[in-house]
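Deliverable D5.2: sample structural annotation.
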Amino acid sequence: MDLPFKDKTLLAFFKYLKTEKNFSIHTQKAYFFDIIEFITQTWGDEAIEAQSLAWNAIDKNKAKNYIFSLQENDTSKNTLLRKCSSLRSLYNFFLKEELHNNNPFQDIKAAKKDKTLPLILSREDISTLLSSPSSYWAQKKGKNNDLLAARDTAILEIIYSGGLRIQEALDISFDQINLEESTLRILGKGKKQRIAYLGEPAKKALANYSSCRKNAELNWTSQQDPVFINLKDFKKLNARSIQRNLKNYLAFCQLPPDITPHKLRHSFATHLLDAGADLRSVQELLGHENLSTTQIYTHISTDRLLEAYDKAHPHAQT
C-alpha cells in the first residue's frame, strides 16, 4: 500500500501494524482507508505535500465532530465502530512512541456494533461443497486439474475441520502439520499460537494433495515452505485465488453464491455447539480472545434447537 502523503509518522504506524501487530492484509487495508479518509476530510489537498501533519491540532471536539459527520452520512454502525478503532489505534501509537501527548478518540463512544448472526451451512451443504472441487475439475481440460482439485479440497477441509480463518489456512507451512497427532499449529491474530485439530477427511485431503504435488514434481525444499501454492508462480497462494475458485464451486453445485470460506469457520463453531461442546473449548479452538465473541454462536444453536423442537415435539404448536 503506497501512501499518497509524505508524513513519516504515518509510514511508521503502518509498518508497526504489519511487523509488530501482525495484522492481516485485510485489517491493514481497512485501517489504511479509514485513516486516509480522515486525513482527506480534515486537511484536504494540503495534506499531500505536508511532511508532518498537525496531529496535535485534533482535540476531542474535532474528533467528535468528525464521527458525527460520519453518522450524518448514514455510515453503518459496524463501519463507524471500525473507523473509531482505526483512529484510536493511530493515536495510541503516537502516545506509545511519544510523538504526541493525547488521544482525542480515546473516550468517544461509537454506536454499538450490530449483532448480526453469521450464516451457517448445514452438514449436507458442507459435504456438497467439500466434494465439489473434484467434480468441478473432473469436467475441465488441463494437466494440473487433479492437483488443483486436491489443493482446494485440502484448504476447504482444514478450514472446516480446524475452524480456521482463510489466511491462517493459507499461511500453513509443512512444519506446522502433525498428521500423527492430527493437529495443526496455527499462528493467529497478534501472533498468538493455538492448536487446531484435523479430522480424518482433512488428513486424507492433505495426504492426497501432498501426493499430487510430488507427482507434479512440485516438491518442497524446506519444512518452512508454504503448503498451498499458486500453480502459476509456485508462491504462496493468496486468499483472492481461493475465493475466486470457491465462486465456481458454488455455481457448479448450486449452493448460494454468498457462501465464503469464513462461513465454514462459522459452521464449524455452530456444529460443535450443536453436538454438545462447551463454549470455552470452542473459544479456544477458534482463537477468540474474548468469550463474548464466541457467544454469538450460542444464539444460533438455540435457534436451531427451537426449530427442531417446533418440528418434532407433538405439543410444540397448537
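Annotation notes: Residues 13 and 90 are 7 Å apart (CA to CA). The radius of gyration is 23 Å.
The annotation will be released with the project's public dataset once the embargo ends.
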